[in-house]
Design brief:
This protein is α+β, with helices and mostly antiparallel strands. The chain has a single domain, classed as HUPs (Rossmann fold, 3-Layer(aba) Sandwich). It contains three helices and two strands, in the order ααβαβ. Strand 1, helix 3 and strand 2 form a beta-alpha-beta unit. A two-stranded parallel sheet has the order 1-2.
């Protein structure tokens, strides 16, 4: 995260380590968030992109807007 913090010094980033399953851990941190950004991994050049269960949980249950961005 260091390069992004240097590039955007005015953006507050709160990094935490939470020992939970991915979807609940991600949602745990969104109570006071203004925006949640999650990545979507590509499936390969012949298959269409797919949204996994963690991203689906974020989109459906986060109390803030969710931006889904490609991994590449």
């Amino acid at each position: 995260m260091r390069p992004w913090r240097k590039k955007f010094p005015d953006v507050h980033v709160d990094a935490q380590v939470i020992l939970e399953s991915p979807a609940p851990a991600l949602l745990h941190g969104t109570a006071n968030a203004e925006l949640l950004i999650v990545g979507r991994r590509p499936r390969g050049h012949l298959l269409p992109p797919r949204i996994g269960h963690v991203v689906q949980a974020a989109v459906h249950h986060a109390p803030c807007p969710v931006a889904v961005v490609p991994f590449d």
